[in-house]
Records
---
Amino acid sequence: MTTPQTTSGPMPRQIGYIIGNEACERFSFYGMRNILVPFLISSVLLGYLPQGADRDAAAKDIFHTFVIGVYFFPLLGGWLADRFFGKYHTILWFSLIYCAGHACLAAFENNATGFYTGLFLIALGSGGIKPLVVSFCGDQFDQTNKSKAKVVFDAFYWIINFGSFFASLLAPLFLRHYGPAVAFGIPGILMFIATFVFWLGRKEYVNVPPTRRDPHAFFEVVKTALRARLAGEGRPGLAVAMVGVVSAVVMLLLWLLSATVSLSWWPTDFGFVITACLALGVIIALGGWGASLQLERARGLHPDAAVDGVRAVLRILIVFALVTPFWSLFDQKASTWIIQGREMVIPHASAWWPSWLIQDAAQMQALNPLLVMLLIPFNNLVLYPALRKLGFEPTALRRMGWGIAISGTSWIVAGGLQLWLDGGQEVSLAWQSVPYLLLTFGEVLVSATALEFAYSQAPQAMKGVIMALWYLTSTFGSLWVLLTNAGVRNDAVTAYIASTGMSENAFLMFFFAAFAFVAALAFGLYARRYPMQDNYRVA
């Protein structure tokens, strides 16, 4: 008779270094991110455009292109960590690139080449470490103390928002009173501190070695499944996957042709970023579908655990795909909602308004991390226990589905405020607190939950890559924003919006709300069939 293994072991003491690193890094990232749109709108970098809607749209496009990069490069960081260098060294080296990017922003505020190089380096550095810090944190736990992992994942998400709160509150003031060099320089200093704190814990970390060239890794199993032949049967999965690859190559070739010769039917706004993201999406979707059709053919050529692990990853990818509309809503709080807030009236005359602190519409973003820090303990200590007493178990997938729907509701409220503004009314900036509350509640249900979900569902050899694929949902979220922004530049779409009697901004807000509701419904239907896994490391 075996003794059941305890799950109440001690908290790993090295967690403090990881949490401290994350607090400083998040201040660094959100400090620059949350002032990027206001800076671009007023900077000489967009001096070729007149003040107004054109410059606002250009700033939004640059911002969401940057976000796409931030959440695309986790693929590179996850791959390098899993195959070659391990998580610790990959995090450390990408952090140094990250620091160099901040230095470029501070030094080249009036130089487009230097500034955009800085944005690229930050996207590369931030994206490179993004999937690894969370999974590296999870690596410090095993079966003996995994019960404490949920507490740490919640604390991890809480500290992200602790750093984000002060960054969102203070960075716009730094920009307003001290200029871009200081406003972008301070986040750079915090990133250096974050790197130093992470380095301090180097002797205490549990370092799970990289898998190197594992013959039973995810892509090896997929290749075997797609290539395998069965007597008397075709290879439908390979055909589906090849359609995806060919479609992606054709898209990229059409973009290249459109850049050199005139293709009147190719959308003029489909630059490299949009085209490359669409191509990647087609490969992932059709490649994953094709692999699922023939996956059982890999059984016997690879261990059952490896084949089952690939099946689990393919199921996770469907969950991730259905979450992408949430990010199209969430990331626009740093672009669309800031632009809306600039049209509103700051209620300085009201005694309850903290005029000594809140002086800029961009500072309303501080509500998001503040509410996260309040809602996480409220949910864990009050809401979830109350729901369980009522007989409703708030599972991870249920929380995520409801989070998407609640986020859609926030955009209905934002659209109502925009209609108010479009009607010529003076609208207090304080009203934006309502959509911020709803969006943040949705975020806690989706994003904080997904940190735990993604790590627990990923097989051990694929944790870095699966976390990278989770962050890729934000890339596609911003892709939907760029596609929508490109769509409204079409004369037919513009005419249709005009026929509704709404402004373009209001129409798009209601459009994104509807997008979220459809995604929430699809998510709920799929979640009912999803088989949960437990892939924590064995002690």
---
Amino acid sequence: MSKATFRERARYWFDNTMSRGTASLIGWLAVVSVGLIVVVAGLTLWLAPNEPDGVNGPGHVLWIALMHALNPGKLASDKGSTAYMAVMFAGSIGGLFVVSMLVGLLSNGLKQKVDRLRRGRSRIVESGHTVVLGWSDQVFTIVAELVKAHASQKGSVIAVLADRDKLAMEDDIREAVGDLGRTRLVCRTGRPTEPRDLALMNLATARSIVVLSPEGEDPDAHVIKILLALAKRRGVHPPVVAGLASSRNIAAARLAGGEDVHLVDSDDTASRLIVQSSRQSGMSVVCMDLLNFDGGEIYLRTPKKLVGVTYGEALHAYQTASVIGLRRPTGVVLNPPMDTVVNADDEVIVIAHDDSHIRLAAGKPSMEESAIVEAQAPPTEPERTLLLNWNGRAEQIVRYLDGYVAPGSVLEIAADHPKAGTGLAGLRNLTVNVKDCDTTDRYALESLGVGLFQHVIVLSDDRFAAHHADTRTLMTLLQLRDMQSTLGEHYSIVSEMHDENNRALAEVTEADDIVISDTVIGLLLAQLAENRHLADVFGYLFDSRGSEIYPRPAASYVKTGTRVHFATVVESARRRGETAIGYRNALARNDPPHYGIVLNPDKSEPVVLNHGDSVIVLAER
């Protein structure tokens, strides 16, 4: 290889200096300007040594050359010989190019600086802030719920790090959430998988970290990589809550993040909620009320005055809060046996509208003994369920449903999905039949004999984009609603959707429950970001083992049409080994936003429960 020439070395050095940015370019422009001024001054002293009039030496000539280079307009006021005017004209033309280049460089450099600031690359100087890593539609739900949770706090901060434009993130969140109240939103552009970008979020002083499962292919791989980056950080590690799209990746994520990371299995949680909602009308609304920060919230309390009393007695201990279980050193138990004694190391789990409402009641509650009804729970019988459409979590839904129904129950799957009904070997209680069907076609639905089923589940077809899939689901719901009205049939309808904005449209169909899976997961992540100790409580609620939420006929608890205090309903449920937490008014079942459900009413509140109304209880199956 030939040796580099002097010209090549000089050009290489020049290229390197030019690539150093705006400051280097301005430096070169200054060198050119000095050269121009010196040349103009030298030519003036040589060709017109006594011009202009009143010149006082070379220094004065240099000043005149500088003024012409910076302000070419001075040429108009010059007078002198042709040689002098020619030199000043050349200097002014050269100065014109220099000034133009200087303005362009300064403008470009300022633009680059503004763009860098706009991208949000400065380190956050906050403490006690909640950090959200990643971007998906769940971010809007999480921010909205955290704003509600921090409404009474000053200096609350939510920091979001995602590989998106900073201003675009802020605009999208403010447009979706609206007024942020006292909470400040700080967005930074960067990759949550990069340690250098994570350093921007000042994680050592953060209150908690929420890791979102992004949209697109293989989202869990992205979450696991973020958990690895967080685990490798030095210093303080705040609590981490992460959402995963698939149950298959839980073990890998647990290994990546460590035991202190709480993982939310989106598929599993949504599947359980869909199954429970299909069997208990209003279940999804109850869960949404418990998960959001608008209505009843779940709190943990350690009241010394309840130590030594039984769980059954503790049910009447609070006037404006509902006891639902105990958090013991051995774990969480909801609706334990009524004779369970509250120990000193137990925490009482209560539902309240605000922590200020959790106060022990003075005296015994008013109850109408004559209104209490003793009724036996009806025996379980085989059921018929219709499942419309198919997606990646459908197999899990079928298996959970198999654990609920009585032996001899039938599940009819109607879908034109190529994988419909696959992977269902080993079911114990369900007999499964699969039919090819376009679920948006009225005649195809009528051929299924929908009136023969007690429950209908409408899933979102994963072959289509989320918006299109929701549109198809709406079409199916409208067809089912019209068939019910025309044929006089009655069956519960539960549907799955992606976009919370479509709930208002779906209300026209009067479906019993609409499960917005992304919203449910977002609410759960927000709750755990505020209090990760509630993870076991919500895990228990969504588990098929132990006590679950059931809306049961009000006539099984109190005399219908009779005015009673809600404490009477609580007492009636207590005698059945159940915990009453609210009721549902059947006449308002289609009225948003609560659809007739009232959670945690004041125990002294008088209520009249009629035929068709329900009492919401925690009970064993």
